[in-house]
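ARCHIVE RECORD
Type: protein–small molecule complex
Small molecule: adenosine monophosphate
Source of inputs: curated submission
Record status: active
Notes field left blank by submitter.
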Amino acid sequence: MEVKNVKGTKDLYGEEVTNFNYIEGVMSSVSSLFGFKEMRPPVLEHSEVFVRGVGEGSDVVRKEMYTFLDKGERSLTLRPEFTAGIMRLIVQNKLYATEPLPIKAFYMGPVFRYERPQLGRYRQFNQFGVECVGGSSLYHDVEVILLGYCILNTLGLENVTLKINTLGDDESRNNYRQALKDFFKDKIEGMCEDCKSRYEINPLRILDCKVPEDQEIVKDAPKMMNYLSLESKQRFDQVLGQLEMLNIPFEVDDNLVRGLDYYSETVFEFHYTSKKGVNYGAIGAGGHYDKLIAEFGGPELPGVGFSFGIERVASILKDDELNIPDENVMISILPMKAEYNSQAAQFALSLRLNGYSAEVNYDGGKVASMIKRAVRIGAKVALIIGEDEVKNGTIVVKNLESGEQQNVELNKLNEALDAILQKDECDDPNCGCHEHEDDECCHEHHHHDGECCHHQNKDK
Ligand code: AMP
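STRUCTURE (tokenized, with ligand):
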């Protein structure tokens, strides 16, 4: 029996899971600030959803889907992306009729593509993305780009390049497609096999070809900008103008066409080069679409969205040594004899009820190795229960970072733990949180000018 993981999949455990949770947490909370709410479509859909939604001309549908017949002979597919499933969800549940427009959704989870596995490219990977459906203003395009930018900023990514282009409306794209066909007509024979089929299905995708010889030819191809209808050109100029107003740096990239067939007007990608100079390529991408909701039988509603690859963002955070806050304030309880296990279990429960994360070493051993283990699991404090402590109604509280330890009466335990674990006491004399003896500290950091941010936020 094969006991290895499937090629192109990845086991996530330990720190990687912490990092994923952190990234997804930041992405969802920033999206919530923009008014987006989570949707969870199923991983499995009828294959038709993606054939219709992503488009028969896309590499994803032509070559990369995990499609199979289930026991009832239905053709099902593991989602290769989220957008089509979200559109199906919106139409099937008639959200366009029951919910206020635009519908603003975020999503996260695994997606599956049969690609050649390589660094940063897997067959099962995770995406986080958003869709804003049913608002026709170009400001929604800008808002979604801004959201992507804010997410990356909040994660601390500094070298983000936003590449942006427009695919124009139907008229612009038809004209451009024809111009490309004319241009490539006598060149396509000498180009790669992929380009040959792209020539037939969607010549715009030839611009995306990564084969160096083909890229040389592509350099001289006609530019989209020269085939834009007046409306599309004005729309794109306004989008760029608004990005400038918001101080979001961007590069217009004529060759950016995106691999999925459904886009029109604005398309964009977030690229990244790490501090050490590693080029991660696109870490997130998206664009505007007009026909997807109608494709699933709903009304003609425009939309705009993007998705980030979580694996790529996680490697960047590691590469750039960006701090991922350590939320683990684990307390490890060390009963020195098995007969103290029951008491330790009760301690652990009461600590957990007080909001601490606590565990008990029920398996005994020498005190030094128990402490070593506590440090390895990331505990900040060890509580040692020995014979003397049981006799005297005390407990040893050991700060595992400083190594200091003290014998504490049980009714003073919470105070002792607070002193070790909540060091960020408010030091603003004007804050007022310590005015009365029994007041709890606000535990907020304060601005340099001495103003209390806690109270500032409250006042807003
Ligand atoms: P797409 O849905 O193709 O626009 O991809 C959106 C993002 O998902 C990309 O920018 C990548 O960060 C990520 N991504 C796409 N394909 C893969 C893959 N095979 N493995 C890991 N991440 C991927």
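CURATOR ANNOTATION: Residues 443-460 have pLDDT under 50 and may be disordered.
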